[in-house]
Design goal:
Order of helices and strands: HHEHEHEEEE
Strand order of the largest sheet: 2-1-6-5-4-3
CATH architecture: Roll
Shape: globular
CATH topology: Nuclear Transport Factor 2, Chain: A
Distance between the termini: 31 Å
Radius of gyration: 13 Å
Structural class: alpha+beta
Largest sheet: 6 strands, mixed
Number of helices: 4
Number of strands: 6
Number of domains: 1
């Protein structure tokens, strides 16, 4: 995909996340996509921090929104090439300090096939 289309995917991802549109968010992913995050590792150590597939992604984000109904991401930078997108954003959660986050999407045929989250 051209970098401009991958940037569009990232913008749609942020919009859907902030709208808490889990079905729309998951639709951006390939059926067998992986999502790796320190939060997953902390809450579900048995996964090693990685989940796979639409069902797991849906359960993860529905659970996050249920735990933190005010959760939102504020984009600070988006950079893309023809295969991946680098997102930088600030995670805002109720009763928590804002947290800077970096996330990488690997994109194939217009779908996210892997996402990896990095934060302290």
């Amino acid at each position: 995909m051209p970098a401009s289309e991958n940037l569009s995917i990232a913008r749609a991802w942020l919009e859907r996340f902030n709208a808490h549109d889990v079905d729309g968010l998951v639709a951006l992913y390939d059926e067998q996509a992986t999502h790796t995050s320190p939060k997953i590792r902390a809450l579900h150590p048995d996964t090693g921090g990685c989940i796979r597939g639409h069902g797991a992604l849906t359960a993860w984000w529905r659970g996050a929104i249920a735990r933190l109904p005010g959760l939102r991401y504020e984009a600070t930078a988006l950079t893309a090439d023809d295969e991946r997108v680098f997102l930088e954003y600030v995670r805002h959660a109720p009763n928590e300090a804002p947290m800077p986050v970096a996330e990488v999407f690997e994109v194939r045929a217009g779908r996210i096939v892997a996402s990896r989250v990095y934060h302290g």
